[in-house]
Amino acid sequence: MYEFSVNKKDYINYYLFQNTAANKAYKRNLILSTLFIGFVTLGLSFLNGDTTQKNYIPAAIVLDLLLMIIAYFFLRYFDKKRLLNFALKSYEGLKEQDIQINFTPASINLTVKDSSSFSKSEIKYGEIIQIAETKNYLFICFKSPKVIIIPKKIKEIEVIKNELLEKTPPHDLKFVTKQNWVWK
Hints:
27% strand, alpha+beta, 4-stranded mixed beta sheet
């Protein structure tokens, strides 16, 4: 049996990880939005300018590339701000939780306690679809929208990770390692 605590900060880090590092759609949408802005501004510059001059086309392309770079950082900044504000709002009233996790041959027994509630769950290993590892956390994701967040500050983290990998059916499991992921 392993014991650890998770708090609001841990849940926020999980949300931010799932929506940035582990989410290819986030990166794709950011790049596509930037390209769209770039092509629109380039098209508008050709509509309004005198394209018969020799220097006009290279200058328009350079200006467009500069605008695309600025748009990329602008969009990234506001998207990250939106994600962080949503995470802070979503987990606003969350209290620190004490978690006990026990690995049996067929399932994970999970006990969650906070100042006002107590719950027990039994989760079969076949329900695990992803184990994501970052520098500070181990996230165990299930088919249902549930997750176990294990901070790496506990001593037994390598034992827990090895036990999970050993007992989870390999054909169902996706193991993601993002050791250098940090919310910036």
